[in-house]
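Subject: for your reference before the review

Hello V.,

The reviewers asked for a structural picture of the protein, and I figured it would be easier to keep everything in one thread rather than splitting it across files. Below is the amino acid sequence we used in the manuscript, unchanged from the supplementary table.
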Amino acid sequence: MFGYTKINTENRKEKYLLTIDGNTVDSRQYEMRILSKNDKICLTVGDADLFKKITLMNFQQFLETFNEVYTNLDIIFDESNKSFFLGYLSIYTKDCHVYCTLSLDYKNRKWNQSCSIESHQKEMIRLLESRLRFLKKIDNIESEGLSTLALYFTLNDFETPIESILAQYFSSFKSAYYDAIQNLKLENYSDYILVNFNFPDEIKEACTQYLRYFSRFLRDLGIDIIANPIEQETGNVLFSVTPKNQEDALEKIKAALEVYLQLPSNPNFNTIVPLGAEIAVQRLYSQIQHFQSQLTLARAEIQLKEATIQQQNNLLQQKDALISQQSSLIQFMKKDDDETEAVIEGVFSLKKFEGDWFNLELPEILRRLKKLIESQTSDS
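And here is what came back from the structure prediction:
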């Protein structure tokens, strides 16, 4: 838990030190001040480890302790292009709400992509506005040597750790960065087709193999192409199709690709290939059947994983129930060992019997038998 302690310096000025679970944090890692109106902390963080510890909190916990946390750690999204990075990040509270502002910065002189910074920023804005939760607005700011996208968020998820929400945002920034570059390439070049796919991990390999067969599919139609599916750093698969003969119209290839991608999901697929069809048709049929079988296998593996997880959850529930029963039994066994039950009042009684490896609760047995007999007598 975060807090602070107050000390007096040599010149009698008050100084505040940040604490975690009562332990003082190295003051070289931050700068801080305390708001007099609510005693909350305003913190500028210069240490990555300290910032990570703060982000383990959820926003409800943040709201109770901090007024603002600001950092400027320059997080790089693309090691091959360090001219694009996260500049500053500020999380702050106002009127019992939590807000976040951050900057995506471009170094003008070091930008090494084929598209311009201006066009990339426009495409980034379009992508981020359609993908990000809680995004309030994006400003485009120009300063000496830097072009900046300033993003503003209103955060309404108070239960999820800050770290998890920021990880989602950073992943979105990285994927939008690459997607913007590829989308701009599509606009600038007209001699090939470029399609971006986002396949689940369980079926990515099967889908990539099916994409590779597209070149053979077109060859059987009389069109030679180079088909190249490439897995990107973001996990997406970028599929490029380039005709070997420039006379082959890209529109025809696009139409063929649309048909090819829809074939495996055709509900009448098993009935559309007649017996004795030509080799090209049978080859395509075989390829699609193989792809469908891989998808079926992947679905079975997913269902097995889900069933295993469900089974583990059931076992945990059974374990909890058993622990609860054992606890009740222990409480029962803690009854007074001298407890007795009268058989003939004042003459003969039963007490708990203890063997070498067991205890026999004779008083309880007799009580149960008495109740049973009494109930049967009253019924009769």
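For the response letter, the relevant points are probably these. The two ends are 68 Å apart (CA to CA). The chain is about 40% helix and 30% strand.

Happy to draft the paragraph if you're swamped.

O.
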